[in-house]
Each structure stands twice: as structure tokens, then as C-alpha cells.
Amino acid sequence: MADDSVKSEASAHQENNNGDNKSSQKVVSSNAEEAAENQTLSKRQRKKLQKQQKWEDDRDLRKQRRKERKQQRQLQRHNHQEEDGGEAQKCRKRPRREVTPSSLKLVVDCSFDNLMLVKDVGKLHKQIQRCYSENRRALHPVQFYLTSLGGQLKQSMDEKDKGWVNWKDITIKSEHYGEVVAKEELVYLTSDSPNVLEELDHKKAYVIGGLVDHNHHKGITFERAKELGIAHAQLPLSSFVRMNSRKVLAVNHVFEIILAYMEQGSWQKAFFTILPQRKGAVAVVEDGTTIQEKEEEDSDSDPDTPDQTEKQAQT
Ligand SMILES: C[S@@+](CC[C@H](N)C(=O)[O-])C[C@H]1O[C@@H](n2cnc3c(N)ncnc32)[C@H](O)[C@@H]1O
Fold first, then answer.
1. What is the value of pTM for the model shown?
2. Which CDD domains match (predicted)?
3. pLDDT tens digits, residue range 79-132?
4. Which CATH architecture has domain 105-313?
5. Which residues have CB under 6 Å of ligand 1?
């Protein structure tokens, strides 16, 4: 009998080692059996059994502790929700901004693709992403066009941001802007134009050269505009700001300045809101003196690369 019970205990013990605690309950069913067992089992086996027994005995205690921990977590969650709920309510009380889409068209002309190195195409890609996201959250979003999309830029978009095919409120064409928008509507924005933009005409389509060239192709957009016989103009930077670097801005900065001007109705405010600090922009008052010094950082840096704070549009 004893031998049989040892056998069954040993096999139950084996099962226990495999994690079956129920079997161990049977094994330790009576004190008499335990005593017999203790005599026949090795010291190591006895220790194991004792450990299992303790584990069984502590089951309720563990259950109780688990319950307490759960209650504590629930309480913490509840407290956090109350705090956040207060904040969320405060946010809800803020007046909703009325979005009024503008009829003005902003075209990014991507016809310079073959003039750029892959790394600059990557920068342009980010600048375009930035234009898209800024327009989506603008108070007066423009009619955004991307024209002549193809080549390296499209490849970059297909590889790094497949979601572009689902972009909303944007017209993306592989055709040249001259085939998409009526010629008389077009105004090429270019820093080399002698014409200075004073007001925005909401019936016009303003074209921005989709180019990151570190000024290697100086004047290229001005030449193109003249060849096509379309209007051109530069932003009125000189009238409102003095900068410690060239007045050639990155695509997204031009785009965002237009959005900011439509929202704030002031070129000066728009420039100061958007221009990166490293441009060292300083406001100009009527007599030509300066009134506001912006922190100067990296004054020799590349005008094509947006500010450090503008991670989305960076290289
Ligand atoms: C990095 S720039 C390209 C510079 C290029 N060498 C060129 O000839 O246009 C990107 C585009 O932003 C626009 N842009 C930059 N600075 C401007 C300014 N001061 N006034 C008007 N447009 C500007 C132009 O459309 C320009 O093609």
C-alpha cells in the first residue's frame, strides 16, 4: 500500500513539477499519508512538497492581494480621468475656429525634379508634407496644387509616405501647371522678380518653384516665368524685414507665409510668425530703421533648409 502511495505521490509530484497543482492536493490529502510520505521521500522531494503546500495555503492571500492591487489601479485611473476630464472640459469651452476655405490657388511646381540630388528631393518631399499639413489646419486653406509630379519626388513619396494617395483637399497632377491652370491666373513667386507683391488676389494661382537647389540654379524660376509669359512677383520681404541672409526662402516657408498673411492680414506678422530665427529677421519701420531683433542663429546656413524647430520639413 505504502509503496503504491509513494508511487502515486511520486508521479503526482512529477506532475507537480510540470505545474499541475491539483495533483499535489491529492498527494497531501492526509497527515498520516504525509508522515509516511516524509519518511519515504528524499529531503529534496520533501522540501518541494512543503513549498507546494505553502503555495496552496497562500492562494487566498494572493487572491486578496491581487484584488487590492486592482482596486488601487482603478482608483488611480479614476483620479487621472478626473484631472484629464477637467482639462478636456476646459478645451471644449474654447471657441471653435471657423474655417473658411479660400479660392486662392497655391501651386507647387515640381518640374525641376531632374535638377536635384536625391537628398534634396528628400528635403523637398518633407517641405511638401509640411505645406500639406499646414494647409489642412489653416483657418483659410488655399486650393493646393502639386503639378508635374513624377520622377524622383514621386518615387520618394511612394516609398516613404504611401498615404499621399489619400491626401484630401489637394489636386495632384503629373501635368505642367500651364496645362492645369489658365495662363492669366498664374503669378510665379520668385525672389528674382522686380515686382513686389503687395496684396494677394484670391482669383490668382500663385506658383512656388518646387526646388531645393542651395542657390545653384539662381534665377531659374524667374527665367521660366518670363519664357512662359506669365506674371511674376517677389514677396515684400524688403519692405517689412531686414534679414542677415539671402531672401530666398524654402518652399514651405513661402507657402506658410501666404497662409499666415491670409489669417493675420499683415505681411510683417506673417514673416515673423513663419521665418526661421536663423534668418535673423529684423522688422523694418517706415524710416528704414529696425525695431525688433530676432535671435540670430546660424546666419550662414542654407536657405533651403527649414529651422531646427520645424522638424517635419527638415532634411
Ligand atoms: C528654394 S527657392 C528656389 C530658388 C531657385 N533658385 C529659384 O530660382 O527659384 C523655392 C521657391 O520658393 C519661392 N521663393 C523663395 N523665396 C522667395 C521670395 N523671396 N519671394 C517670392 N518667392 C520666393 C520661389 O518660388 C522659389 O522657386
1. 0.66
2. Trm10euk_A
3. 777 666 655 555 555 566 789 999 999 999 999 999 999 999 999 999 999 999
4. 3-Layer(aba) Sandwich (3.40)
5. 189-191, 208-209, 211, 213, 215, 217-221, 234-235, 237, 247-251, 254, 304
